[in-house]
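To: structure subgroup
Subject: Chain for Friday's discussion

All,

I'm putting the inputs and outputs inline so they're searchable in the archive.
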Amino acid sequence: MMDRARLTLGRPLGREGQGVLHEELSGKINGRWDAVYKEFDPGTSVEVPVLTAMTQLAGRLSPPDAAWLGEKAAWPAETVEMDGAVVGFLMRAVPHRFLRDVREPATLEHLIRDQGGSDRERLLVLADLADSLVRLHSMGIVVGGLSPRSVLFAVGGEPGCFLVGCDTMGMGGAHALVPADVPLPGDEPLGTPQSDGYLFALLVVRVLTRDPGAVDGRRLGAFGGGVADLAAAALQQPPFSRPVLSQWAARLREAAAVGAPHGAAAGTPDTAGPGTDKAAAPGGQAGSSGQAASSGRAGSSGRAKMVGIAATAGAIALVVLFVVGKNVLKNNVRAALTDSPDVTTTPTEVYTPPPAPTPTPTPTEEKPEFEVGDCLSGLPKRPAVDSCNDGAPYRVAHIVRLGEYCDGKTNHRFLDRGDVTYCIAYHFGRNHCYKWTKDEEYVDFAKCGAPRTYTVRRVVRNDESKDGSACGGVGTHYWTWRMPPMTVCVDKH
């Protein structure tokens, strides 16, 4: 927690949601990113334990997840207090590529108003957003009031998105600030993966038709890859019958590869059929009109480094608190709150979409590639069955249908292959040597003693201490996982 008196505030950057943004010049987030300070409006109701847990989330994530979160979102990094009360928080500034000029963020509202972006670029931005939502859900984070104002886009280079207004996102059903109401069909509750899916489908329809009031997925018939089918299903089906976001990402990229005439869907009138909710545009629980990259100055007498969104690999090699598994939406994040010290006209050429995919078979209908209990190496690109006795680093804990969640209680990772998802647990062998991939997301065998490798000395399962005491305490090297709990004592080379 930072005292407000220690901040060196620069120019104001406008408003965002329930607060005002300022440059913060005395340091950098994670030693890398320009900092922004958000000060809450007087009288704003803030759930301080939830906000505190949000600032601590990076330390509970795997290194690649923590780094990804820092690159893709202006996530709360450190709370700021004044006279003993929390008055705001620090976060990273918006990257320059997501700005229209030095001050104005490039929100999806600009795409909806047809201000830039080809059809292909729009499809790829939306595909990146779908991927981002999938990854956030796997961390226990739900966006809630997904809004055109809370999603920034860039089309130069590789099209992609960046999320702002993160202080109203939900973690395990809890919110630091109450998100704005967003119309959902049938009084559906806000703040679930299913509501995120509905609001995402609305964004897809509106961005691709360039119509802020569009609600009819059939207007996307000009786009390849079955996008119109997914949109219609997402906007008309009940929550648990909607397409999953991973399906969206694949279909949108297929459509980008096929291509569609610029504005092909833009002039199509909205003819929503029976059962289609004429919902208003997704409301912005966190407007982003003021968030911009700060000047990059850093006072030499200020703090050298602020508590960061994501630590670099070297800084977190000793202690890694993983929040893993695809279904951590409640259990893991609520545990994080408990641990907090202070205690979410028809187009002229119509593309005929491919036939709808046949229902996904259950794992029992077709023999899976791997079986429960198999030990694996070579993840993620070349997974192969390996010897459990020879220290293969992964073991198949259970198998679910593609699109379903692993429970997070018996697995640390997941692997999508064909029609199924393999829920994977780490399986290390004593005196065996391992290395992490360059992005530090996967581990595999290594030559013992080689630089940047590790030798496993002890594996302590069901260890919830999270402090390395099982390995001897201070000066030891270890990895810890929270769900399921495990500590691995290692020698670093």
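Points worth raising on Friday:
The CA atoms of residues 25 and 298 lie 5 Å apart.
The chain has four domains: 2-94+305-339, 97-163+181-258, 375-426, 433-492.

D.
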